[in-house]
Amino acid sequence: MNTFGQLLRVTTFGESHGPAIGCVVDGCPPGIEIAPADFAPDLARRATGKSRHVSARHEDDAVEILSGVHEGRTTGTPVALLVRNTDARGKDYDAIAGQFRPGHADYTYWQKYGTRDPRGGGRSSARETTMRVAAAVIAKKWLAQRHGVHVRGYLAQLGEVLPRACDWAAVEANPFFWPDAAQVPELESYMDALRKSGDSVGARVTVVATGVPPGWGEPVYGKLDAEIAAAMMSINAVKGVEIGDGFASVMQRGSVHRDQATPDGFLSNHAGGILGGISSGQQLLVSVAFKPTSSLRLPARGVDIEGKAVEVVTTGRHDPCVGIRATPICEAMLALVLMDQALRHRAQCGDVGEVSPRIPPQA
Amino acid sequence: MNTFGQLLRVTTFGESHGPAIGCVVDGCPPGIEIAPADFAPDLARRATGKSRHVSARHEDDAVEILSGVHEGRTTGTPVALLVRNTDARGKDYDAIAGQFRPGHADYTYWQKYGTRDPRGGGRSSARETTMRVAAAVIAKKWLAQRHGVHVRGYLAQLGEVLPRACDWAAVEANPFFWPDAAQVPELESYMDALRKSGDSVGARVTVVATGVPPGWGEPVYGKLDAEIAAAMMSINAVKGVEIGDGFASVMQRGSVHRDQATPDGFLSNHAGGILGGISSGQQLLVSVAFKPTSSLRLPARGVDIEGKAVEVVTTGRHDPCVGIRATPICEAMLALVLMDQALRHRAQCGDVGEVSPRIPPQA
Amino acid sequence: MNTFGQLLRVTTFGESHGPAIGCVVDGCPPGIEIAPADFAPDLARRATGKSRHVSARHEDDAVEILSGVHEGRTTGTPVALLVRNTDARGKDYDAIAGQFRPGHADYTYWQKYGTRDPRGGGRSSARETTMRVAAAVIAKKWLAQRHGVHVRGYLAQLGEVLPRACDWAAVEANPFFWPDAAQVPELESYMDALRKSGDSVGARVTVVATGVPPGWGEPVYGKLDAEIAAAMMSINAVKGVEIGDGFASVMQRGSVHRDQATPDGFLSNHAGGILGGISSGQQLLVSVAFKPTSSLRLPARGVDIEGKAVEVVTTGRHDPCVGIRATPICEAMLALVLMDQALRHRAQCGDVGEVSPRIPPQA
Amino acid sequence: MNTFGQLLRVTTFGESHGPAIGCVVDGCPPGIEIAPADFAPDLARRATGKSRHVSARHEDDAVEILSGVHEGRTTGTPVALLVRNTDARGKDYDAIAGQFRPGHADYTYWQKYGTRDPRGGGRSSARETTMRVAAAVIAKKWLAQRHGVHVRGYLAQLGEVLPRACDWAAVEANPFFWPDAAQVPELESYMDALRKSGDSVGARVTVVATGVPPGWGEPVYGKLDAEIAAAMMSINAVKGVEIGDGFASVMQRGSVHRDQATPDGFLSNHAGGILGGISSGQQLLVSVAFKPTSSLRLPARGVDIEGKAVEVVTTGRHDPCVGIRATPICEAMLALVLMDQALRHRAQCGDVGEVSPRIPPQA
């Protein structure tokens, strides 16, 4: 199933080393201003080849708008976006076409379909997330212009390293999306050592949405948190999702966790902005765990497509920490979920005006 | 959206203190043997009123089969199940009908719909999960009989307490679903003290599926792990979901995390049985975080429906740790996801026979 | 698939001779006033046992509201409705349990599922349409109150008999929903003769919606006319659907068919109120063909479940013309489609206010 | 909603005069052989510019496969197809950009979205059907190879002209898909006179599927006939759909209509191969009414976007009878519905083997 969303429906296609990747964004309200240049900033944030800490593959990621936009605005018909692959090196993968790389989707695609496209992971490559980020550019615009909702994120953990400060101004000023400028040299050394060792490491990304009004989310199987969880878990290499305090809630007392409120605002936000699957008007707080990349030049024990034992060594161009480039992808998925839920809320509850009383978010 | 699943579609209805709760299970293959008595064991495992550690509400949870079964077998038409509410005490809630209980869905339903059913949390009550467990009885049966897949779970953490052993035989022999019989007295004391304090605590539930063949799960937006994440997060009070090593992956090295394999089997299962969103044939490992109950007799600062500050005290019958009864609910959601994905896999890949080579799960 | 609609989702369940039939209406806006008594008028219009021209089965069709309504208004959670079957005579069908009745779904259900519930046609019985009519009571109310949209229908042909006048006042004053009071005696004789002969006959029903604003319907695969066609064709015994001039368009010239317009209004309505799959603001005109009932006491050649030739004679209680009771069912399906499309339109195009210029419908 | 199908999901995009049109076919089983050349024959059958009786627009309709195919076979990931528009003449439409053409979607798109792409009808153009035909090439292949199902069609009426014979060999040998070779000169004269008059005319297309096994189709809202009706009605200019005897059933007696059977086969096929929404194993017979084209050089009374009365004269390149090129489009929609239903049947009923007794189709 390559379509995401119920009313804002994003269908992506394309393989890592095929001729192109693309998406169709269906259900867009008419009148949203969109130009090819709008996609460049977020695609650049996600792109490979920008620092020595990420994969060296270089793609222009130039977006062609094929439909759905007339005279610079969406028309209500499906917006199709196309990005040509220009730096695919299929031959890098000849060596491993007959092997299943440990920790990869090679074996599971093979088992599911009885075949696979081995070039660069084919459809299972993170290259696919390019189009999620592209589609979310439209969602971010609409959310900001129509609802004042803003989505942003940062790298909240890199292996053992935790931020010592959380400064939004720092995040976009370093290649790690790290919220503490002072730690950047430390991260550089960390990554250099890691790359030298031939190993990889996991990471945690936190994404936040501000301005979300209370009322978005559909009980009981289309809950806002449930759809965020699915959205994040659908990103390559994700192994865990938390809303608000997440797993820390396990050890909390109810008297602490429950966010008390006064007419002047909520007094805490342990819930991360969602109660009963519906937004509370507080900040949405989502945290995502990325596993370490499995493509390593360190040899591993594996099996080939004949069923024989092999030693697998992955060359090619890979990220030693996929989490580093994941911040814009997590933002994208959160934005797509929010826009979809906003449209669904409008469909069912458009009759209901603004409801009193409104409790302001925690100051 | 009160329907769950794409091909096995479970629609639930009913409020905590309405006349009845029920579900419609659509898409069931024909020929599954089902009798009213089949539902009793799992509903009893989930039920309130079974020990002093859970809510005292007593419901018979007698299931009436309204359709879809003829001469003891499913016919392929929708299976409708009905459970009458018999111990609803709406008047317990009169006091709080005009207030928003902190940490509850009261405020968010009010904001979404401009109205709410305040009796027992209405639709947001965990009473709704009764029907998930009932629907999953069918899924568990089909999975076991057709595919040899078994789903089971246990309480993996209660507040600060962690199991010291993991013995499946112990799990069903205590009211906590705890895998270490020796610790049960400790848990009893822990819960007694908690109840006396008027407070509540969170918990962690782990669910495991064995026998899942490789190949279930749909890239890229219907991934097995993504749908499990949504399923778990749709359960009341859940704040986090992990697959395999989950958040522990953040600090792991790739050389450790990637599950190496030989023709005799996988050598580890950090991935929790899913790679690229598709089952690998290993055990599925899912871990879920439950927040502490927000309904406490300890007073909290809140807001009433006029927007005025109030002190909220919750009486009624509540669980001091909702996680205690959550094991069968988590099992249910995993079983529903698996059956749905099994049907989806059969639809698309039924042409493909069993694929070689098969790597056995870790011994 | 027993769910109808994308945003207003109606799931029905129940067999003709099972304990009950019911439905879940999900996606209802909150605040719609609904009481059990609201369902009675339309269910009575559809009911059997009302005249000698329809089946003699007598059901009370008393609707129990199980959820989704609090203090007389919808809350936004799923509305579940239940009707107990009280006059099912399963034993009428013992004789045919081992045979496939010609022209019935007996054989096709058997082939699909390898089993079937033979009592009264099981799930394939028109009894299921009771819940469509019940669900549509909510849709009709919302459409009328919020949008001024009204849906009504009449019997436009009974066998060879065509109406000589079209008077809405006559329609509800006779058991045929016939629009010409003067012809009712003729129809009575026609039906008496038919019943005496042991045979049955087909019919045509026309349904009309007034007040539909321009803009409802989703290109290109959720077109208003496409969804109406599916809705009508999903009714038992329907073999054809027309929008506007329908099959008469085949012989028309474009200069005649295209509905010209002036600022004072459209000059004709050959299109039946839909252009490009979107409502034009004109009356919606839909015409539906019903085949003659296949359950006859006249013997037919058939096959039994052993594959042997048999002579099939159907006793039981059947309608000699199913079209007679079909008018409220066709209305129901049109109302459900319209409410669903209204919600979908609001979701995507709620940003767009009323658009100028508006061309009035044909006077 | 620009996606068609539940398990075989076709998403199309593109405007008549935009840079390209395309589609994504998701849910394809792996292993289907597909090459760019496979699309040429059916696209040529549908194409404009092939005879003087259809629009003179000339498009190469060269299909680029962007994803989902590796080494000549589908991999199970989404198949994306792209066709560049090469002969779009946007300026032909400058004159009518400020007018609503009578009988067109101009006005309804404008009302829905508050905007529209006026060039060639934008998204509402029949150009979109190119991608339906392309997608269905895959479906036709799979249906034929896996199930021996074949879909074909012919023009069953052109204005007042009816075929005097029905010879499949004739159909592909004339530009009208007419089943009687002897009548072709008559049709040529008919169309020449029509074109000279500046007017247009409607048509009827009949499509037939052979080899469909009994059991496809999902009661009660995913019936095979209901989905065929929606599929056909979603084609531009369609105003009516019939299954089997269709509207002729209205005047039939049940003793005639019900298809009797013996162990050697059905004795008739009035039902058109569908009973209770499920295929019976007989030929599927579907008939579709096309309205006459509304784009005429004959002036019509209309309204402009300022709301003023205007005289509308359409130049540009148009078909005087859209039905002439519609046969492959109707075939395509039937093939897509059948493949989708085949996959859905396999999902739910894959457990059930071939069921006895099988009644052969009418000889």
Give a description of the structure:
4 copies of one chain form a homotetramer. Chain A has 8 helices and 18 strands. Chain A has one domain (89-349): Chorismate synthase, AroC fold (4-Layer Sandwich), CATH 3.60.150. With 363 residues, chain A is of the alpha+beta class. In chain A, strands 1-2-3-7-4 form a 5-stranded antiparallel beta sheet, with helices on one face. In chain A, strands 9-10-16-11 form a 4-stranded antiparallel beta sheet. In chain A, strands 8-17-18 form a 3-stranded antiparallel beta sheet, with no helix packed on it. The first copy, chain A, is globular and about 65 Å long. In chain A, strand 2 (9-14) and strand 3 (20-26) form a beta hairpin. Strand 11 of chain A pairs antiparallel with strand 11 of chain B.
